[in-house]
Write a structure and sequence with these properties.
- This protein is α+β, with helices and mostly antiparallel strands.
- The protein has a single domain, classed as q2cbj1_9rhob like domain (Jelly Rolls, Sandwich), CATH 2.60.120.620.
- Helix content is about 20%, strand content about 20%.
- The protein has 6 helices and 10 strands.
- The chain has a 7-stranded antiparallel beta sheet, covered by helices on one side. Strands 7-6-9 form a 3-stranded antiparallel beta sheet, with no helix packed on it.
- The longest helix has 22 residues.
- The structure holds 2-oxoglutaric acid.
- The site of 2-oxoglutaric acid has 9 residues, from strand 3, strand 4 and strand 9.
Length: about 270
């Protein structure tokens, strides 16, 4: 899969779209790059994601698994009921990250020495509920800094609203700073907590409640967002599994890991 010609439409590699994307990330904290990935590439990602997920879920078998990063395994985390996060490395996906269509944006924002931190597939079962609002990692300074981490979520098939795309609170990356706003608690922002809502971010201030957006996605479209933005996966009311691949990146000097905290493997009990 090192043939770059099948990876991307021109999208973010050209001057103006890249600059626009950077501005969107700064102001809104997210953007949707419609149809960024070519269909052969999406098909390849979906095949790897489905076959790897089947292996992991079958190896998990009847072992109990809770909700959240600390209650999961190295190979699988249940992010919310029926929403499964299965890490898959770029090697396993068979790709070189420098060839990926969003890489120019990642380096423009996080620096030329940006690092890959995680990748995989997050899929939601039919009937699974919406998540609680959350951020993926907390701010690191009371002053607003550029993002320390970015996520790219790729629709591996068309995702209509009934299938529950990701919902984002526009501009909320500017409002989730618990080091600046003492009414916010870092753990309540990162770990899904029903009390964390877009309204809560502006309670007692003159700021407007951030506008929430979720839209149907076509296969190959990418949601790219700041790790600090308030977001959630919506409920899957369809009869089909919803699969999104993801690639997460960090600044070279940023090491926190609230994403995969468990230190056990699904294979431990079988050894
Ligand atoms: O499933 C989604 O759309 C988002 C998942 C997510 O934000 C998470 O599990 O942290």
């Amino acid at each position: 899969m090192n043939d770059t010609s099948i990876l991307a439409q021109d999208g973010l590699t050209l001057g103006k779209p890249l600059a626009n994307a950077q501005l969107r990330l700064e102001d809104d904290g997210h953007l949707c790059a419609t149809g960024l990935c070519k269909s052969e590439f999406v098909k390849h990602l979906l095949e790897v994601a489905l076959s790897h997920s089947d292996q992991v879920i079958s190896a998990l078998g009847a072992q109990p698994i809770g909700i959240g990063s600390a209650a999961g395994f190295d190979e699988v985390v249940q992010r919310s009921p029926g929403r499964w996060d299965i890490p898959i490395s770029p090697d396993k996906f068979g790709i070189d990250q420098r060839d990926l269509p969003w890489w120019p944006l990642i380096t423009a924002v996080l620096g030329d020495d940006a690092k890959h931190s995680f990748s995989g597939v997050v899929y939601s079962d039919p009937g699974s509920p919406a998540q609680c609002w959350h951020i993926d990692s907390p701010h690191v300074s009371a002053d607003h800094l550029p993002p320390h981490a970015l996520n790219v979520m790729i629709a591996l098939h068309d995702v209509p609203l009934t299938m529950g795309p990701t919902e984002l609170a526009t501009g909320s990356h500017l409002l989730t700073n618990h080091l600046h706003n003492s009414s916010l608690v870092s753990d309540q922002l990162v770990y899904q907590c029903a009390a964390t809502t877009p309204e809560k971010l502006v309670a007692g201030t003159q700021d407007a409640v951030p506008r929430t957006v979720s839209s149907a996605l076509t296969a190959g479209s990418c949601l790219i967002f700041d790790d600090r933005i308030l977001h959630r996966g919506l409920g899957n009311a369809s009869n089909n599994r919803r699969s999104m691949a993801y690639f997460s990146y960090r600044q070279a000097g940023y090491f926190e890991n609230t994403h995969f905290e468990s230190k056990r493997s699904i294979f431990d009990v079988k050894r």
